Amino acid sequence: MPEIRLHGRGGQGAALASRLLAEAAFIEGRHAQSFPAFGLERRGAPVTAYTRIQDTPILNHSKIYAPDAAVVLDATLLKLANVAEGLKPGGLVVINTDKGPGELGLPSGLRVAAVNAGAIAAERGLGSRLAPIVNTAILGAFAAVSGAVSLESVLEAIRRNVAFRTEDNAAACERAAIEVETALL
Amino acid sequence: MKEVMMGDVAVARGVKLARVEVIAAYPITPQTIIVEELSEICGRGELKARFIKVESEHSALACCMGASMAGARTFTASASQGLLLMHEMLHWSAGARTPIVMANVNRAIAPPWNLWSDQTDSLSQRDTSWIQLYCENNQEVIDTVIQAYRIAETVYLPVMVVLDAFILSHTSEVVAVPEQEDVDRYLPPFKAALTLDTNDPRAFGSISGPIEYQKLKMARHEDMMGAVEVARRADIEFGEIFGRKYGIAERYRCEDAELILLTSGALGGTAKIAVDALRESGAAVGALRVRLFRPFPADDIADAIGGAPKVAVIDRNLSVGAGGIFAQELKAALYDRERRPAVFGFTGGYGGGDFTPEVVEKIARRALEMDKPDSPTLWEAIP
After folding, report:
1. CB contact under 8 A, A35 and B354
2. Closest-CA residue of chain A to B170
3. Interchain contact B164–A (C-beta under 8 A)
4. Is A26 in Cβ contact with B166 (below 8 Å)?
5. In Å, how far is A4's CA from the nearest CA of chain B?
6. Do A60 and B172 touch (CB under 8 A)?
7. What ipTM does this complex have?
8. How far is CA A158 from the centre of its chain?
9. In Å, how far are B75, B89, B97 from B152, measured between CA atoms?
10. Within 13 A of A150's CA, how many CA atoms are on the CB side?
C-alpha cells in the first residue's frame, strides 16, 4: 500500500506529478488516489501533493501522515520543510539536486535517491534553464528506485496525459531513471 | 470505461451523460472545475447544451428555473457563499416544482474565510424542499448525478448532489464512466408534464390565499416523503443496468452492533476502515452512511440501527445553538419508536479537519465508554 508525498513549489507540477503517479498505478490495474494539499497555492510557494496506491478499492479519504516515500522537486525546500516528516522507517526520499544523496543532511535510516532532474528537464527544453519543469523527470527516478510503479507505466501515463512536449517529457523521465543515484543513510 | 478523475470532473461527466440541455452556473472554489469542465465539454460540441454565463448564483438558479419550466433538463453547481446567495431561488425553484439538479461542493461558510469541507452550507438548506444526496467517492458522484435526474423528473422536485470540498472535488480516483447508451436507457429525455408556452399563456406563482397555499405546500410535503421510495427505486434500477448501487442508507457490519457510527459523505469510507479495526479488537461496532438526507429516510435508518443500544453520529457540520444536524434529524426520527438508542452527537472536522480512521476509532471508544452522552453535543477537535 504505497503512500507517497510530493514536495514542490507552486508551478513546478507537483500536483500533476501526483496525478500521473495515480494514472500509472491505474494503468497497472490497481486502485489509486491523488490529491493536492488543499492549501492556498500560488506560484513559487511550497506545495505538497499526495498519491495513495493499493490493490483493493480505496476507502480512506483522509490525508497521508506516514508516507512510504517523499518526492522532492526542489532541493531548496529542504531549508523550509521537513521532507522526512512522518516517513516510515527505511522510507525513501527522491530528490532533485546536483548533490549526491549523502550530501543533503537528511536523517539516517532513510533511503535517499538523488537525481539532477533540473538539468535533465532543461536539456529537453522543459520550462526554462532557471526554472525547469521537473515533474516528469523526477517520476522516472522515483519509478526506477521505488518499485511502486513501473517506468513503463509512468511513461504511458505521460503519453496519455501530458499534451505539451510529450516525447521530451517521456525522454526526461527515462533519462532520470538511468541517472538516479541511491544511498542508504 | 474506467478513468482517473477528480470529483468535480465526475460531476461534469455525469451532466454530459444525462444530456442536460441548459447549464447556468457561477464559479466558486472548490466547484470551479465543474463549471470549467462543462464549459469545455459544451465548447467542443460534445454536449448540445445552452451554457448561460451569469453574474451571480441567484441568477444561475433563476435561469435554470425558467429553462426547466420551458421543458429543458437543467443543471447548476455551487458551494458555500454561492449556495447561500441562491437561497431565495432554492425555495422558488422547488415551489415551482422544477426538476433541476445541482451539485453542491460542501465548503465552510465565512467568517473566518475557509475553503475546506463543511456540510453546513447544504444542510442549512434543508427546509427549501430540495432533495439532498451525499456521496462517498467519485464513482458515486458520477452515478448519483445520473440518478438525480431520474428522481427529480419523477417527483418534480429539485435534487442537490453533495460532495466534500477537496476530499472529493479535487481528489483524483478511478471511476468507471457509464456508457452513453446505458444512460439513455436509464434516463429517457425529459418530457415535462406542464411547460411554459407563449402560444398558450398561463400565470405562475401569483398570489394565493391561505387554503390554496397550504394545499400546495402539503402536496409538496407528501411528494417529498414519497421521494424516499423514488430514490430507492432509482438506485435499484440503476444497479440493474450498471451493476452498482448504494442504497439510500448504506449499512456496514451493523449486525449485532453495540454501537453504530452514523456518517455521511466521504467520511463514510474512512469509517468503514475504523469499524474493521474496532471489530478486530473485539468491539462490536458498525457503520451506517446516510446517503439520502432529505427526505430523511427514518424507517430505513431505524431498521439499520435495529436493536443497537448506542449510535454515535459524526457531524461534519454544526447548527450553532442546536448541535450537529444529522444528530438532530436522527433523534427526531427515533422519538416515536419503541427502540430508542442513546444518541451521541459528535461534531467536528468542519472547515477542513481531517477525519482519519484513528480519529473515528477514538470517537467510537469515547461513545463505548459512556453509558449516556455527557452532553448533547460532543466536540472532537480535529487538526
Report:
1. no
2. A35
3. yes
4. no
5. 14
6. no
7. 0.94
8. 13
9. 12, 17, 9
10. 8
- Confidence at residue B346, expressed as pLDDT on a 0 to 100 scale: 97
User: Residue B261 and residue B312: Cα distance in Å, rounded?
Assistant: 5
| Chain centre distance of CA B88 | 19
Question: For chain B, which domains are there?
Answer: 2-242 (3.40.50.970), 250-379 (3.40.50.920)
Which segment of B175-179, B197-201, B296-300 scores lowest on mean pLDDT?
Answer: B197-201
Rounded percentage of chain B residues whose pLDDT exceeds 70:
100
Per-residue DSSP letter, B19: T
The set of cell numbers assigned to B75 is 443543471
Mutate to test the interface with B, among A38, A40, A42, A162 (most CBs of B within 10 A): A38
User: How far is it, in rounded angstroms, from Cα A50 to Cα B145?
Assistant: 27
Q: Which grid cell sits at A115?
A: 537525481
Q: What are the structural domains, with CATH classification, of chain A?
A: 3-184 (3.40.920.10)
Q: Which residue of B has its CA nearest to A16?
A: B172
Closest CA to B135 of B108, B100, B173, B80: B173
Backbone angles phi, psi at B46, to 5 degrees: -80, -20
Q: Which residues of A touch B116 (CB under 8 A)?
A: 38
Residue A41: pLDDT over 90: no
Minimum Cα–Cα distance from A51: chain B residue? B172
Find the residue in A nearest to B171 (Cα).
Answer: A35
| Unique residue bearing C-alpha cell 506545495 | A47
CB distance A62–B356 less than 8 Å? yes
Distance between CA atoms of residues B126 and B121, nearest Å: 10
